[in-house]
Amino acid sequence: MKKLLLHKVSKSFQTEIPLPSSKSESNRALIINALAGGKDNLSNLAEARDTQTMMRLLASDDAVADVIDAGTTMRFLTAYFAITGQQKTMTGTPRMCDRPIGILVDALRTLGAEIEYVKNEGYPPLNLKGFNFSGNNHLKIRGDVSSQYISAILMIAPLLPEGLVLEITGELGSKPYIEMTLQQMACFGIDFKADWASKTITVPAQKYQAIPYAIESDWSGASYWFTVVALSENPDASLELLGLKENSLQGDSVVTQIMSHLGVKSEYTGRGFKLTKIKEAESLEWDFTNCPDLAQTICVVASAKNIPLTLTGIESLKVKETDRIFALQTELAKIGGKLVEIETNHKYLLTTDQISFDKPAFHTYDDHRMAMAFAPLALSYDVIIEEPDVVVKSYPSFWKHLSAIVEIEEI
Ligand SMILES: O=C(O)C1=C[C@@H](OP(=O)(O)O)[C@@H](O)[C@H](O)C1
Ligand SMILES: C=C(OP(=O)(O)O)C(=O)O
């Protein structure tokens, strides 16, 4: 098994980090640009494997589309291949075939897609067999499992002969990702109406306009650098994260607010954000419904700083790259962290006991965010990260960037 030993950092740092581009924005732009018939219009596309996979599959005539472990690629391409009438088998890693897709398949079938499950009802692999518009222009779709189904349907909605009225039912998670989808669609010329009180989005039938479009830097990837500053023992440590926008399409930009309670001040510099250290709060309560990908980052900081953290809105973590709640519970325990569900209404409490440990080795569960969330603990002590190559999913240059601050050795 490949492992990295990250040596404890004792020196201070004032460094610039050139952040990667957002895979979420990239994967939307690629689908929308393809639907617009655009050619080389997109710039600053992500190096993330999820985005490289999207590009490869959009350009391929193969009958099998293997998305590997990319959720957005699976969900967005299923809708794209369905509406464009392509016959494809959609598949991915064993974990991808354990991540639910029934809500999206039901919605696409209602619109007129012919889709068969290859093995298990409700899960990939899928066979897409064609599209005959059913005449339905009003859909209800659950919002509590993954917003990616809703984004996938919205992006194809303008191509439906009568457009679409999409009514979201139940709780809505990851709403900023749906707003990101709508804002990117608007950039490519689409009119829509979103009534958030009734959770109803109306998209008339219309054509996308192919336009030049540049992808922003990734706020989810930025979160790990907030941890680096939060855990540095040097009061004058600072980082400038290059390429981040002040008014981002990405909901994970809320990391600036969360981390202001955990000891990091962030200021816009015109070319990104500068992070410096400030005093932290004594405890924190946060609802992660709108920013599930930040939960691992925040748990690690809170545990390392021994700040009691109450979390809500983390149910969707169970159906991501791994069961992230289980993975967090298991790995945080190695540094004394106890993450427990304290009420049946999905409220969790993270507290940390003083335990003795030496060079903890963190398992990464085929999950890029486990590796990147735990790596900054090297600001406090030596740590080992197992299977570090998982970071390629969203941030292939993560270890190279981290080596500007941390001495990293392959063992
Ligand atoms: O639409 C997107 O780009 C994403 C939506 C979120 O998923 P869910 O909607 O399943 O929470 C997020 O966790 C994922 O990393 C990216
Ligand atoms: C959940 C994630 O991605 P996806 O659902 O697109 O696989 C993620 O990047 O944290």
Automatic annotation (TrEMBL):
<dbReference type="GO" id="GO:0005737">
    <property type="term" value="C:cytoplasm"/>
</dbReference>
<keyword id="KW-0057">Aromatic amino acid biosynthesis</keyword>
<feature type="domain" description="Enolpyruvate transferase">
    <location>
        <begin position="11"/>
        <end position="58"/>
    </location>
</feature>
<comment type="similarity">
    <text>Belongs to the EPSP synthase family.</text>
</comment>
<feature type="binding site">
    <location>
        <position position="146"/>
    </location>
    <ligand>
        <name>3-phosphoshikimate</name>
    </ligand>
</feature>
<feature type="binding site">
    <location>
        <position position="24"/>
    </location>
    <ligand>
        <name>3-phosphoshikimate</name>
    </ligand>
</feature>
<dbReference type="GO" id="GO:0003866">
    <property type="term" value="F:3-phosphoshikimate 1-carboxyvinyltransferase activity"/>
</dbReference>
<feature type="binding site">
    <location>
        <position position="148"/>
    </location>
    <ligand>
        <name>3-phosphoshikimate</name>
    </ligand>
</feature>
<feature type="binding site">
    <location>
        <position position="99"/>
    </location>
    <ligand>
        <name>phosphoenolpyruvate</name>
    </ligand>
</feature>
<dbReference type="InterPro" id="IPR023193">
    <property type="entry name" value="EPSP_synthase_CS"/>
</dbReference>
<feature type="active site" description="Proton acceptor">
    <location>
        <position position="293"/>
    </location>
</feature>
<dbReference type="GO" id="GO:0009423">
    <property type="term" value="P:chorismate biosynthetic process"/>
</dbReference>
<feature type="binding site">
    <location>
        <position position="174"/>
    </location>
    <ligand>
        <name>3-phosphoshikimate</name>
    </ligand>
</feature>
<feature type="binding site">
    <location>
        <position position="71"/>
    </location>
    <ligand>
        <name>phosphoenolpyruvate</name>
    </ligand>
</feature>
<dbReference type="GO" id="GO:0009073">
    <property type="term" value="P:aromatic amino acid family biosynthetic process"/>
</dbReference>
<keyword id="KW-0963">Cytoplasm</keyword>
<feature type="binding site">
    <location>
        <position position="148"/>
    </location>
    <ligand>
        <name>phosphoenolpyruvate</name>
    </ligand>
</feature>
<feature type="binding site">
    <location>
        <position position="23"/>
    </location>
    <ligand>
        <name>phosphoenolpyruvate</name>
    </ligand>
</feature>
<keyword id="KW-0808">Transferase</keyword>
<dbReference type="GO" id="GO:0008652">
    <property type="term" value="P:amino acid biosynthetic process"/>
</dbReference>
<feature type="binding site">
    <location>
        <position position="324"/>
    </location>
    <ligand>
        <name>phosphoenolpyruvate</name>
    </ligand>
</feature>
<feature type="binding site">
    <location>
        <position position="369"/>
    </location>
    <ligand>
        <name>phosphoenolpyruvate</name>
    </ligand>
</feature>
<dbReference type="InterPro" id="IPR001986">
    <property type="entry name" value="Enolpyruvate_Tfrase_dom"/>
</dbReference>
<comment type="pathway">
    <text>Metabolic intermediate biosynthesis; chorismate biosynthesis; chorismate from D-erythrose 4-phosphate and phosphoenolpyruvate: step 6/7.</text>
</comment>
<feature type="binding site">
    <location>
        <position position="23"/>
    </location>
    <ligand>
        <name>3-phosphoshikimate</name>
    </ligand>
</feature>
<dbReference type="InterPro" id="IPR006264">
    <property type="entry name" value="EPSP_synthase"/>
</dbReference>
<comment type="subunit">
    <text>Monomer.</text>
</comment>
<dbReference type="Pfam" id="PF00275">
    <property type="entry name" value="EPSP_synthase"/>
</dbReference>
<feature type="binding site">
    <location>
        <position position="28"/>
    </location>
    <ligand>
        <name>3-phosphoshikimate</name>
    </ligand>
</feature>
<dbReference type="InterPro" id="IPR013792">
    <property type="entry name" value="RNA3'P_cycl/enolpyr_Trfase_a/b"/>
</dbReference>
<feature type="binding site">
    <location>
        <position position="320"/>
    </location>
    <ligand>
        <name>3-phosphoshikimate</name>
    </ligand>
</feature>
<feature type="binding site">
    <location>
        <position position="147"/>
    </location>
    <ligand>
        <name>3-phosphoshikimate</name>
    </ligand>
</feature>
<feature type="binding site">
    <location>
        <position position="393"/>
    </location>
    <ligand>
        <name>phosphoenolpyruvate</name>
    </ligand>
</feature>
<keyword id="KW-0028">Amino-acid biosynthesis</keyword>
<dbReference type="InterPro" id="IPR036968">
    <property type="entry name" value="Enolpyruvate_Tfrase_sf"/>
</dbReference>
<protein>
    <recommendedName>
        <fullName>3-phosphoshikimate 1-carboxyvinyltransferase</fullName>
        <ecNumber>2.5.1.19</ecNumber>
    </recommendedName>
</protein>
<feature type="domain" description="Enolpyruvate transferase">
    <location>
        <begin position="62"/>
        <end position="402"/>
    </location>
</feature>
<feature type="binding site">
    <location>
        <position position="293"/>
    </location>
    <ligand>
        <name>3-phosphoshikimate</name>
    </ligand>
</feature>
<comment type="function">
    <text>Catalyzes the transfer of the enolpyruvyl moiety of phosphoenolpyruvate (PEP) to the 5-hydroxyl of shikimate-3-phosphate (S3P) to produce enolpyruvyl shikimate-3-phosphate and inorganic phosphate.</text>
</comment>
